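Many introductory courses stop at the sequence. We go one step further.
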Amino acid sequence: MREFIYNEAGIDLGSGKQTLVSSRLNKRLRHHQLDSFDQYIELLLNKNSIEYQMAIDLLTTNETYFFREAEHLNLLKNLVLQHQPKDRNFRLWSAASSSGEEAYSIAMVLDDFFGSRGQWEIFGSDISSRMIKKAKSGLYQCHRIDAIPKDFLRKYCLKGTGEYDGYLLVDKKLRAKTRFAEINLTKLLPEVGEFDVIFLRNVLIYFDNKTKKNIIRSLTSKLRSKGLLFIGHSESLKGMDLPIKLIAPTVYQKK
């Protein structure tokens, strides 16, 4: 199973994560009445597309929430937006967007900064089709919104009633400027255009150095001149020969 997930998603599930793999996939083995992971892998390799995607989802879905590592959003305003020509379309890629909380957090910041006349767009991607579907909906349980600033809650979020009681819907105008697509960052990237900023946070820790380097080189090619790359606070690219330079903690600029 370790070899399968490495080949398909580039993620190294080392021996210390055997319990994680077992706990997430045991139900699928029981569902198909299989006796071993070898049998399950055989099922996946036989191009059972629904089960294949379900396995990828279960093994790659990680925790996310609104305004995670909010210091980065302050840096985004101070390092980028303050110097951004307001007559040029600002493009940002949330490259491991999971269920969309990161992308919509950034969307709130951009709309608040640029105002109604601002030209900006956000592209969010994830390897999980299930997470992309959730992100596109913009619908979240209210217990996940504690970190959203109160003024942003009032301005950009609609509280559900009736069957949607306990849920929150991201404002329509933000959803219109935020699009999502299923992308595997370890494979050849599709044509997505160029970006001023790319967020790739809290995902590099799951890759070995070779895969990290390949992903960063691939993403950097999608940055505009002097564009910025944000990675997670617990991550580092130290010692890697890459076409970027460190300009702030966990913030890199294309050379």
